């Protein structure tokens, strides 16, 4: 199982279990998540979800760049821009950069709150609901982006960019949160800097381990993690190419197919919750009517 390949996971070190128990232990991204165990999400399905989410993140990010000349998921760049604008005293761009970061944080908080709330209410599709909300916001951008993209808002004598920029930053925060919470922070769909860093660490381990010197400490190489990280980066790159082409071909409407994919991804679990609660509602209505 994949949990064996994550020796740096403190959860794994704390849970010493017999061999038979370890053999059936959940993968690393299901650790401490009993509400997921009943769904039996395999490692292969989780990998596919990670690749699809990274692909969609690359598409949204690239489309946003052609729309605003800014990468809406690049919080590091926004923070660096804010610091530069403080030095050059360009306060309007400083506000734009800071508000972009706040929108990304707000989107992440919004998605996490939805996931936590639906888990508390014992919904099976907690992550699916967050995807559906994100898809709804993308639909708004795709349907009304022409208006939002060409609307400038003056404030205090400074010209602020269109609301669509902040909307995409908010959406990217939501998008990154789903896989981050699901994997326990092991992977992220928009943060390729972290993926590249982790991939470099695993590559260093592979070179270090290959020496096979008796005096060197034992280092376990996590090859499945290497493949996962490399796949996420490749998917993000491919999504960026598709997103750039999509924006050039369809403008803001490029977001509509992305929203459709998110709806499809969350449809199974959300549909299960809807049918189950509708069934309970009808049973209660029937029982009340019988009285």
UniProtKB/TrEMBL annotation:
Protein name: Predicted membrane protein
Family annotation (PANTHER family): SLR0142 PROTEIN, UPF0700 TRANSMEMBRANE PROTEIN YOAK
Keyword field: Membrane, Transmembrane, Transmembrane helix
TM region(s), chain numbering: 49-73, 93-117, 129-151, 163-182, 226-248, 254-274
Pfam family, one: DUF1275
UniProt cross-references to InterPro entries, sorted A to Z: DUF1275 (IPR010699)
